[in-house]
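The pair is set out directly below:
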Amino acid sequence: MASRDLNTRGYQARSGQGDPEPLNVLNSAATSLLRRVPADVWCAVMLDPATLLDTGGFHEQGFRAESMPRLFEIEHGEQTGVDNIRALARRRAASSLLSVSTGGDLARNVYYRDILAPEGLADELRVTLKADGCTWGLLVLCRARESAPFTAKDLAVAEAASAPAAAQLRRALLLKGIDDVEVPDAPGLVTARPDGRITYVSRIADYWLAQVAERRRDTGITTYTLTAVLSHARDRTSADPVSARVRLHSGRWLTISAWTEALGGEGGEEMVIASLTPSLPVALNALVLNGYGLTPRERQIAQFVILGRAYAEIGDLLGIREQTVNDHMRKVFAKTGVDNRIELCTNLFTRHHLPVLADPPLSTDGRLMGS
């Protein structure tokens, strides 16, 4: 079986040169797995751990463009299928083989019928990149009907690859990034019809979408990341918007929010509307703390500390002793590489809160501008 060639030029992670970029980490994880578990079709995707929506990745060796609208509808709109990403995120195991999950009855699975079968594929192996209960990415490997089937050994190899790859990806996403150019802060606007066809992309939205860390074929689809969010919003019964936080090539974060709305009021033509805005610092603090590998309790206490609460006050709020709070914070300091609460707050302030000062040479999201 001959796997499609993996184009790694310019994306190999480089050891000893600081924290790698997220796409480098994702590419390295996929490359390593594909050496041991070859595939005819594959993709590697970054995910927003809060919403499990696509936030960039490698799609060049993935499914044909004609399959993608239906794939996003199944994955993020209908959210059906035994190995849907949301079902996988809830499981203890990180790897899953569709033929096993369906009990060998692939024909009854909508994802197999509508996506794999038309592509001439016989089975799909999925690997969720999980770290501390959060899912940060997904590796998808498929084999054609004429290829050798996946084995139990392949599944075990994929399972072992999940945790280290997830930890590296989380760190690369959250703990690195210096801007070297000035960028606008204005929101962008995108509108689409219920069938998914995009009808309008504002100039600023086009700028933001060009910054998404995503590699794919030239398919005519604006981005797979945006398509995933639009698909999720289109099939929701709630009018509340859905959102995904997306890391850009520059190291900044973008929030894509989408909702459905009847133009002209009730009875008007229904459209799906998306806004693209720089993520607010307060929305990133929890993510950044997660990037250091803090436990849920350590993150909770650290966020109270960031808000200026005293240890005794935090203890009263959580119903624990002040000494317990102090013990948790010692672990927080060790994991974040600081010595005290002042340094912890300064670290987050420097990364995400300096933009309110609007004083060059700082970028608009608080990272130091490159010289």
Q: What stands out?
A: The CA atoms of residues 212 and 350 lie 23 Å apart.
